[in-house]
Every structure is written in structure tokens, then in C-alpha cells.
């Protein structure tokens, strides 16, 4: 007798398969994502009618695929020029970060060129209207609708014929064709598929707002990120006015650009030159501070690292960080203790950044080391000094990318001296570069007065 075909189960998140149903995926550890996939079949697919005949690539027109600027320069920078007709974007971010405010501003700007449909499933149209009045984002061509049904959304699209469709959010929409609660894996997948088909068939630029999980990743199946054309991450500390927009995926432009915004009571303002937000204005240098130049995508940003070292009576001294990677801070302090003989083992160390910016790039290591050493010695760094470099466990200072671009940004803001890794002393007019091999050499270059005294 022929053996019966085995039924397989597949995870909707990562594609992991098993022959037995389980409540939790054995690969990505997600709950409730394993569904029956059925037995593989070997049926022959019959030919069907095509929607349009295949054409030589040289005969295909690209006029309809050109990006249209939104009017918000920082957003256009991240998108690579603007929104593309038929393109689907997924905007994700934590609650309260300003996603709806940003999209309302974009909707009002794009409504000057054509009708825009803003569909909200989380607020009423009156609430959105009140926020639009506060932001000054009113336009007669901006249409609002409060719906949670995809079928009703399609009816609104038929009536308005928009050039831009905004859905806030995809987790609140439901499809009557499938079962499941709103925001569930099945519903999110079906809703996203229907909206993507609608956008492609009618050439409507579409923006989907997505929630994030506790660990900061986009909620819903990972298939959603693969289906859309652009995935944007909107980041920012709710206690700070700074917001950053970065492209995680972009089929129409670069993925190494970021947009900087300032969230105010009157709306979101693009910041073409945000470096001033990350510096402290003071008359005299203060011990425990050092300025560095970090790269966010291809954009150099001036940032300030601060450190405070205080004596401790605790058996295990405190180590507190804000805006920096805690593990990397601990590593740099261990290198200072072991390789540069800076005694901090029995002291409390507090390290932070200015302006709420998060610095995760290794090029910040050298500035952190100089800030901690300056706080231990109670000696400020010379005015106009920046430090760029990665610190290794052997105490060596390693090279980083785009040193010349970083130095040019520092020179533009008035800095005159830079400590960089050896063989990275690329000449930049107006700024003196000092190449160092290790942390000890960097300390000698940063505190020349102390060396002369010794």
C-alpha cells in the first residue's frame, strides 16, 4: 500500500517546518505562528491568460516609476528622492515617537499636487482634524476616513482616487475573507497583501504604519517586510525632541541615509544640520568631556561624550550609561585600566551622550577613553579637539571608515585638532591631525600639559 503523504507545518515568521504542530516555533521562538502547510504536491500548472505580454526591457517606459518629492527634504533624502507611484512603504516605530505626526505633515504637503487619502484605524476623523489644525496641515485635497475594514478602504480609494494612500495602522485593519483577530499573523498578512495588490494595480504610492514589539522589531510576520518596497524605522527617545528616520530596506534608493527631525509643539521640523544638538555650549572646557564625529549612514554627525568618575565605597562600583553601548563602555574602561594604567576599578563611572543621540559605532571608543581619563585626572581636553578611533583589547587604536569626511565636518564646525588612528591622517585644510598607535599615545597627545609636568 502507498504511504499517506505527511502533513507539514510551517512557521509564518521564519519558514521553519516540522511534521508535528507546536505552539512555539523551534527556530525563531515565536508563539502562535506555526500553521499547517499541507503535503507537497507535484501537480502540473496549466498555462493561464497573462495580464500583459512580455516586452524587451529597452521598450519599457520608466516615466511612471520616477520618484515624486514629498516636500519634506529629510524624508526625500532617506527615500532617495521621494515616493514612487505604486511603491509600498512600511513605517515602523515605538508608540508616541511621532509616526502619525510625520505622516500628517507629509499628507498635507503631497495634497498640494493631488488628492491624498489618510485612513486611520486608531483615531476618529475629528481627532485627526484637531491634530492637523495644531500642525497647520489642513488641505482641501486631504481626505480622512476612519475605517478598520479593507473592503471599506477599497471603496474610499474608488471614490477619492488618491495619488498617496496612508494607512494608520496595518495592525488595526481586518479582512473579511480570513479569520483571526486584528493584528494577528493571518490578518496582517492578508491585509498587507490586499493593500500591496491595490497599490500595484492602480499605481498608488502607499504608506503602511506598523507597530513594534518590546525588543524594537517590527510586529507581525517577517513576510511583511519582504513584500513591501521600503521599510523605514522612526527612532527617538520620548524625553528628547530629536527623531531619526532610517531606511532598513529600500528598492528605490540608498539604505545608508538618515533623516533628522525635531519634534515640537507645532509639528515636525527637518534638521539639515543637526550636529549642534549634540554639543554642549560652554565658555570653558570641562573635565570628562570629549567630542567625536560619528557616521549615521553616510552622514557625519558631531557628538559629545561625557564621563564622570567618582570614588565609591560599594563592593561593586556602579557602571551607568546613557546613549552608549554598556558592553562597549565596560570594555573601554578595562582597556584603560590594563593598558594605560588609569585607575578606575574602585570608582563609579557614569557615561552618556548629549542631546539624546545613541552612539553605537566603534569609532566612539577613543573619545570615550579620553573622556573617562580626563575625568579621572580632573583635567579638561584642549579646546577645539576631536577624537576618532576604535579601541582594541590590546590597547591599539584601529582605523575607521571615512576619516576625511568626518574631519571635514569637524573643520566646518570650527574644530582645529583631531586625534585619529595612525595612517589615517588624511590632510584636511584647517584642521591638524595627530596619528596614534595605542590608547597610551592618545592620552599623551590629548593631555600635553600633564606630560610636560611629569
UniProtKB/TrEMBL annotation:
What Gene Ontology cellular component terms go with this record?
cytosol
Could you mention a single GO BP entry for this protein? Answer: recombinational repair
Task: Cite the SMART domains for this sequence.
Answer: AAA (SM00382)
Query: What are the GO MF terms of this UniProt record?
Result: ATP binding; ATP-dependent DNA damage sensor activity; ATP-dependent peptidase activity; damaged DNA binding; serine-type endopeptidase activity; zinc ion binding
Motif RadA KNRFG motif covers 249-253
Ranges where the record places region Lon-protease-like:
348-454
Q: Which InterPro entries match?
A: AAA+_ATPase, DNA_repair_RadA, Lon_proteolytic, P-loop_NTPase, RecA_ATP-bd, Ribosomal_Su5_D2-typ_SF, Ribsml_uS5_D2-typ_fold_subgr, Rubredoxin_2
Q: SUPFAM superfamilies in the record, alphabetically?
A: P-loop containing nucleoside triphosphate hydrolases (SSF52540), Ribosomal protein S5 domain 2-like (SSF54211)
Asked if the record carries the keyword Nucleotide-binding, the reply is yes
Give the residues the record marks as binding ATP. 93-100
Sorted alphabetically, which Pfam families does this protein's record hold?
Answer: AAA_25, Lon_C, Zn_ribbon_LapB
Q: Which residues form the RecA family profile domain?
A: 64-212
Superkingdom as given in the UniProt entry: Bacteria
Q: Which UniProt keywords apply?
A: ATP-binding, DNA damage, DNA repair, DNA-binding, Hydrolase, Metal-binding, Nucleotide-binding, Stress response, Zinc, Zinc-finger
**Cross-referenced NCBIfam families:** sms (TIGR00416)
The UniProt family comment states: Belongs to the RecA family. RadA subfamily.
Summarize the protein's role: Plays a role in repairing double-strand DNA breaks, probably involving stabilizing or processing branched DNA or blocked replication forks. DNA-dependent ATPase involved in processing of recombination intermediates, plays a role in repairing DNA breaks. Stimulates the branch migration of RecA-mediated strand transfer reactions, allowing the 3' invading strand to extend heteroduplex DNA faster. Binds ssDNA in the presence of ADP but not other nucleotides, has ATPase activity that is stimulated by ssDNA and various branched DNA structures, but inhibited by SSB. Does not have RecA's homology-searching function.
Q: What is known of its domains?
A: The middle region has homology to RecA with ATPase motifs including the RadA KNRFG motif, while the C-terminus is homologous to Lon protease.
Q: What is this protein called?
A: DNA repair protein RadA
Organism equals Streptomonospora nanhaiensis
Amino acid at each position: 500500500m502507498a504511504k499517506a503523504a505527511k502533513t507539514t507545518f510551517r512557521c509564518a515568521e521564519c519558514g521553519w517546518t516540522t511534521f508535528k504542530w507546536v505552539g512555539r516555533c523551534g527556530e525563531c521562538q515565536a508563539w502562535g505562528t506555526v500553521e499547517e502547510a499541507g503535503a507537497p504536491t507535484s501537480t502540473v500548472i496549466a498555462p493561464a491568460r497573462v495580464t500583459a505580454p512580455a516586452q524587451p526591457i529597452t521598450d519599457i517606459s520608466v516615466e511612471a516609476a520616477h520618484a515624486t518629492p514629498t516636500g519634506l527634504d529629510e524624508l526625500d533624502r532617506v527615500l532617495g528622492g521621494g515616493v514612487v507611484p505604486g511603491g509600498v512603504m512600511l513605517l515602523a516605530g515605538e508608540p508616541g515617537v511621532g509616526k502619525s505626526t510625520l505622516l500628517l505633515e507629509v499628507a498635507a504637503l503631497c495634497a498640494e499636487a493631488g488628492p491624498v487619502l489618510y485612513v486611520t484605524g486608531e483615531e476618529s476623523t475629528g481627532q485627526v482634524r484637531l491634530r492637523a489644525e495644531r500642525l497647520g496641515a489642513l488641505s482641501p485635497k486631504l481626505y480622512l476616513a476612519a475605517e478598520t475594514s479593507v473592503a471599506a478602504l477599497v471603496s474610499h480609494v474608488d471614490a477619492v482616487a488618491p495619488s498617496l494612500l496612508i494607512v494608520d495602522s496595518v495592525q488595526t485593519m481586518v479582512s473579511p475573507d480570513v479569520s483571526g483577530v486584528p493584528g494577528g499573523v493571518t490578518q496582517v498578512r492578508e491585509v498587507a497583501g490586499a493593500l500591496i495588490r491595490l497599490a500595484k494595480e492602480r499605481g498608488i504610492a502607499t504608506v503602511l504604519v506598523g507597530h513594534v514589539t518590546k525588543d524594537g522589531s517590527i510586529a507581525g510576520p517577517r513576510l511583511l517586510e519582504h513584500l513591501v518596497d521600503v521599510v523605514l524605522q522612526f527612532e527617538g527617545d520620548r524625553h528628547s525632541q530629536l527623531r531619526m528616520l532610517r531606511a532598513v530596506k529600500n528598492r528605490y534608493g540608498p539604505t545608508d541615509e538618515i533623516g533628522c527631525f525635531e519634534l515640537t509643539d507645532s509639528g515636525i521640523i527637518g534638521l539639515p544640520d543637526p550636529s549642534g544638538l549634540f554639543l554642549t555650549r560652554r565658555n570653558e572646557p570641562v573635565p570628562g568631556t570629549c567630542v567625536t564625529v560619528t557616521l549615521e549612514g553616510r552622514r557625519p554627525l558631531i557628538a559629545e561624550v561625557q564621563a564622570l568618575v567618582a570614588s565609591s565605597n560599594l563592593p561593586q562600583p556602579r557602571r551607568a550609561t546613557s546613549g552608549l553601548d554598556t558592553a562597549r563602555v565596560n570594555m573601554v574602561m578595562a582597556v584603560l585600566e590594563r593598558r594605560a594604567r588609569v585607575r578606575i576599578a574602585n570608582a563609579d563611572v557614569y557615561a552618556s551622550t548629549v542631546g539624546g543621540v545613541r552612539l553605537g559605532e566603534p569609532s566612539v571608543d577613543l573619545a570615550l577613553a579620553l573622556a573617562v581619563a580626563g575625568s579621572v585626572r580632573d583635567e579638561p581636553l584642549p579646546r577645539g579637539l576631536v577624537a576618532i578611533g576604535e579601541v582594541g583589547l590590546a590597547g591599539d587604536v584601529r582605523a575607521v571608515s571615512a576619516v576625511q569626511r568626518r574631519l571635514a565636518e569637524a573643520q566646518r564646525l570650527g574644530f582645529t585638532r583631531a586625534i585619529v588612528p595612525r595612517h589615517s591622517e588624511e590632510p584636511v585644510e584647517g584642521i591638524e591631525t595627530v596619528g596614534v598607535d595605542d590608547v597610551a599615545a592618545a592620552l599623551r597627545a590629548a593631555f600635553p600639559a600633564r606630560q610636560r609636568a611629569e
